[in-house]
Amino acid sequence: MLKQRLSISQRQRLSPMQIQVIRMLGYSTVEMEEIINKELEVNPALEESDGDNVSDVSLDASSDTDDSEFGDDDGSAMADDIDIMEADSYYNDDNGAYSIKNNFDGQRDTMQSPVFSAEESFAENLFGQIDETSADEKTKQLARYLVSSLDENGYLTRSLANIADDLMFSMNVDVSEEQLAEALDIVRQLEPAGIGARNLQDCLLIQIGRKHSTPSTELATVILKKYFDQFTEKKYNYIKDKLSVTQNELEDAIAEITKLNPKPGNELNASKASDAASQIVPDFTVEQYNDNLYVSLNGFNYPKLSVSRAYREMLQELAASNHKDSRTQKAIDFTRQKIDQADTFIESIRQRNNTLIRTMIAIANKQRAFFLSGDDTQLVPMRLKDIAEISGYDASTISRVTNGKYVQTSYGVFPLRYLFSETIHTDSGQGVSSKKVMSVIRETVDGEDKHNPLTDDQIKERLNAEGYRIARRTVAKYREQMNIPAANKRTQKD
After folding, report:
1. Taking burial as the number of CB atoms within 10 A of a residue's CB, which of 340, 365, 400, 411 is the most buried?
2. C-alpha 70: how far from its chain's center?
3. What is the pLDDT of residue 222?
4. pLDDT along the chain (494 residues), means of 10
């Protein structure tokens, strides 16, 4: 029997410029330089400007920026206590010129952005493995996108439905959850084992599934599948009774589990810290002068762009021609297309850089105490949603702006994501940054009796006594992030 079904749905369609801007938001300074140089090669209507009609633009609290877009006074990214030197843009509608110059004039422009090195990124390694698979090109592309969506542990915590929506919004690519699931299967086959897991349990099951089958690994698999909660809570006697196994059998299975890597994505952090070939250039600079903060977007290597005057004149001459045969019309269409592409490209860069600088201003305002002191305990709780509310942008836009970007300060270079942290509440109801709590944990461990170190439970109790509402698991998580060993491994013997 045939059935007919009427389905009505709404999808947001983005203009080519919107799509281009969204893509550009995710590019770093170095990547943007490559994109610009490539576009100069392929579009003859786009050229480097001589700079006669371009200059830096300075924004401050009295500039013509719409403050309403950035929230009220106490959260405004354009607050009076932040001076903004926006060195990223100047756009003239008359000549289509666009310039990115050094951040500051005089003594300020002597400041050099340091270059940092890192090994082949973890993501690039995974991309190489994906290329070696037999999957079709579309599936490979989706797999690469999923790799870019992994968290710091190597897990894919977002739902496939949300990722599908994000692909439609950011790239205007319509994919189904089934197609993404197929791509995820590719990712979960990569090395190190556990990449692409949805959670810790899934991660351990992927790894144990690749081990040679033995009685111990088979028992470990059953424990992870059926008694994972009891395993994490160390209710070993309960598991032994339920599975009717001996103590030795249980210990062998647990030993197999403890050999597994719960955070396969940690290799990403390790690669970033090592010295090698690829270069990282800070995307932003935040400088301090007399208790004022100056925020700038680094683009000192960007060429100045404009639409070719010769191409505009050529289009006018062709359009004014009285004899428009098919050949002339093709020339008109080609010339107009290249000019439109050049205009769109220049405007996209302007919008991209405007979004980046406004977002960084909002972050600098939110984390003013940190940028003035360099003390990470001064970091206040901050989420993507907070900056979205201040700047007026969507949280997904803030995510693209901050992902993989760095800010240079007087106290060093920091990933933008370092400035974000979760909120820990105190007994007074006040919210403090997780960085502050981590500092307290560090001080507590430093002051402990080295012959009788504090357990996570004892640290939790001390923090609770000081007013911090924190669980033992959170203490353990922060301790691991700071590379502090467990109590039994910190014991010093005479």
Report:
1. 365
2. 22
3. 93
4. 55 69 85 87 84 34 33 34 36 35 35 40 76 86 86 85 78 83 92 90 92 90 92 89 91 89 70 45 86 81 81 83 78 87 90 92 91 84 89 88 87 86 73 79 85 87 84 84 83 70
Output the six-digit token pair for 401: 């702006």
DSSP string covering 122-136:
HHHHHHHHHHTS---
Length of the chain: 494
How many domains does the chain fold into? 3
Nearest to 196 by CA among 206, 135, 352, 403: 206
Q: Say if 238 falls within a structural domain.
A: yes
Locate 462 and state its tokens. Answer: 């001390």
For CA atoms 41, 47, 51, 55, give the dihedral sign: negative
The label of the residue with tokens 């924190």 reads 470
State whether 214 and 290 are in the same domain.
Answer: no
Encoding tokens for residue 132? 């070696």
Task: Spell out the residues 6+ positions from residue 310 whose beta carbon is closer than 8 angstroms to its own.
Answer: none
Residues 413 and 409: their CA atoms lie apart, in Å, by: 6
Question: What are the distances in angstroms from CA 365 to CA 26, 84, 286, 372?
Answer: 22, 11, 11, 11
In a domain, 307, yes or no: yes
Q: Residue 75: give the domain boundaries.
A: 16-112+282-391
Nearest Cα to 298, choosing from 441, 77, 108? 108
Per-residue pLDDT, 116 = 38
Answer yes or no: is 270 within a domain.
no
**Same domain as 169, residue 96:** no
